[in-house]
Write a structure and sequence with these properties.
Elements lengths: L1 H41 L2 H30 L8 H32 L11
Helix pairs in contact: 1-2, 1-3, 2-3
Length: 125
């Protein structure tokens, strides 16, 4: 009976850690994608692309946490669905969507600057 309780507590702790990994890495990815948009808006396309790469790295970390959860589920080791688990999945999907949109915006800003429709901000602004 004691071993079952320890196992349940360990499983709950693993689920908590995985969910927090999704939230933290997803939030970080979204913040980095937003930073990319800000840089692109100023004309720093190379800096924006670097931020998008960092965002992708954070999304990969979040994806690894999610894959671990899905693998356990597929093996029959079911995760108790809590509000925190649902929230973590929501965070990840929001970050992925935002990252995709940020990439499109960086591409658009790059085209606008190359076409001369926008001018890069100077350091004095």
């Amino acid at each position: 009976m004691m071993a079952e309780k320890e196992t349940a507590e360990q499983k709950e702790q693993e689920t908590l850690e995985a969910a927090m990994g999704l939230i933290a890495n997803g939030g970080n990815a979204k913040s980095l994608a937003f930073e990319a948009i800000r840089l692109a808006k100023k004309g720093d396309i190379a800096g924006a692309r670097a931020k998008l790469k960092e965002s992708d790295d954070s999304l990969n970390e979040a994806h690894n946490s999610q894959t671990g959860m899905l693998t356990k589920e597929a093996q029959g080791d079911h995760t108790k669905v809590t509000l925190l688990v649902v929230h973590s999945q929501d965070h990840l999907m929001n970050a992925i969507t935002f990252r995709d949109l940020a990439g499109e915006m960086v591409d658009l800003y790059e085209k606008l600057f190359k076409a001369g429709a926008l001018k890069k901000e100077t350091a004095n602004k």
